[in-house]
Amino acid sequence: MSPTPPARRLRLGLPRRMFSQVLLMQVAIAAGVAVLATGLFLAPLSKQLDQEAMRRALAIAETTAQDPQIAEGVLTTPPTRNGPVQREAERIRRATHAEYIVVLNPDWVRWSHPTPSEIGRPVSTDPSDALAGKEVMEIDKGTLGRSARGKVPLYDAHHRIVGAVSVGIAYDSVRARLISAIPGLFAYAGGALAVGALAAWLISRRVQRQTRDLAFSDISALLAEREAMLHGIREGVVALDRGGRVRLLNDEARRLLGIGDEAVGRTPDEALGAGRTTDVLAGRVTGTDLLTVRGQRVLVANRMPTGDGGAVATLRDRTELEQLGRELDSTRGLIDALRAQDHEHANRMHTLLGLLELEMYDDAVEFVGEVVGDHRATAEQVTEKIQDPLLAALLVGKATVAAERGVALWVSERTRLPDRLIDPRGLVTVVGNLVDNALDAVAGTLHARVEVELRTEGRTVVLTVHDTGPGIPEDQRELIFTEGWSTKKPPAHGKRGIGLSLVRRLAERQGGIATVGAAAGGGAEFTVILPEALTEPELEPAAPEESAGSAAVAEEEAR
């Protein structure tokens, strides 16, 4: 026989669905509020009815005490069942629906009472306060049961106290009024509870639609997963509210931007200061995969608006990739230079071999000397005029590549550039892009020539590159600086129309300009003016915070 399965336990608790939980909690709150309001109303109502009953009893007692027949009867007649005091007191009692009206003398003896047999007997409660001239209101228990009482002194015509008047109203009648008020009160409370339940149902339905009927535990789990995901991914995430203030930063965003929790609740301008990164986060610069620099880091930023009027920006670190790209570019430049030198070297070796075979030894020696001297003269000419090693190396390499393509690359005699550049990498990017474009423009033309001039005016650097190519039509001289615009066919591995736009961007970033015009002998002439590009002569050159980043952006976009 198989064992009998254990009985299932009945689990009691909140329902799992959020709609049911919210509805149940709100109905419970509404019911609790209704009960509390009812209790708070009944408690003062009971006291209020007691006060009303005692004031009514006191008013009847005062009216009775003011009747001259009452005081005259106490002074002139004995306490009897058919005496004038009893008849007058009973008349007033019936007219006011009081439970009793007792008139007594200073010896506490009754002159009137609803029960005639009690007349002539002393009262059961102490009337001293009333006989002393005080008015008394109380809830007390006497021979007729619990009642609301009012006691006043009884004065004669000379305003002397000759007794007291005590009036009682049955307390059960007060309680009956209170109980009679409860059904109506509960009816109002039930109506309020019904309205509260309906409002709770409507609110719960709205919450159900907005939360997709998830349970509270599901929402809590989603929040925990979101926190873990945001702080675990290797991509910076910055969330902004509809006012443009930062409301969320994950760990990677703090690292990439160099900020902490103090940035939460502030705008990007307040947290980061002016710059392209701030413009991207604030939405003033739009687009996808926007390159920006923060400190020494090159970042790729994307910004997506949210339904509540805010936005979420993501940041990726491209610094290491940029470094690898720069190394690859350097390697490519070296390979191009070596290939050109190899080609030129092969031609020279063939010439030397021919001279030797023809036994023209003197000519061979002279030819070797000229070749070595020309190469040495070119390098020395560049380094003498341009003292910055990066720019000098760039132009020497470009001269070799130009020679292979049949283009003469000259450095102007007016070129003078000291080794005091603030951002040498940025200027290398500018010169490299302009020289490459000039070489492309003159390739395949007769007497192709490109001339580079670098001169200084105080701390300002003026760069001029002109060529003997076909030139640029006047109506296109501004278009060529637009990103993505090019007259050449895009390569398979990238896109064109970046180099010149990058040149202008780097120039404007340093407060300078980049323009193009017609050269004196034909062709195009590019001019770049970079103010404050040199350090003071007595100061050591120091790269600014974003110099390496600007070069990284330049080289990335140039590729």
Describe the protein's topology.
Elements: H1 18-65, H2 68-76, H3 84-96, E1 100-104, H4 128-131, E2 136-142, E3 145-155, E4 161-170, H5 171-211, H6 216-232, E5 236-240, E6 246-249, H7 251-257, H8 268-272, H9 276-282, E7 290-294, E8 297-305, E9 311-317, H10 319-357, H11 361-385, H12 389-404, E10 408-411, H13 424-442, E11 449-457, E12 460-467, H14 499-509, E13 513-518, E14 524-530, H15 547-558
Parallel strand pairs: 10-11
Antiparallel strand pairs: 1-4, 2-3, 3-4, 5-6, 5-9, 7-8, 8-9, 11-12, 12-14, 13-14
Descriptive report:
29% of the residues are buried. The chain has three domains: 21-177, Beta-Lactamase (2-Layer Sandwich), CATH 3.30.450.20; 233-317, PAS domain (Beta-Lactamase, 2-Layer Sandwich), CATH 3.30.450; 321-558, Histidine kinase-like ATPase, C-terminal domain (Heat Shock Protein 90), CATH 3.30.565.10. It has helices spanning 18-65, 68-76, 84-96, 128-131, 171-211, 216-232, 251-257, 268-272, 276-282, 319-357, 361-385, 389-404, 424-442, 499-509, 547-558, and strands at 100-104, 136-142, 145-155, 161-170, 236-240, 246-249, 290-294, 297-305, 311-317, 408-411, 449-457, 460-467, 513-518, 524-530. The chain is an alpha+beta fold and 559 residues long. The model is unreliable at 1-12, 490-497 and 539-559 (pLDDT under 50). Keywords: ATP-binding, Cell membrane, Kinase, Membrane, Nucleotide-binding, Phosphoprotein, Transferase, Transmembrane, Transmembrane helix, Two-component regulatory system. Its main location: membrane. It catalyses: ATP + protein L-histidine = ADP + protein N-phospho-L-histidine. This is histidine kinase.
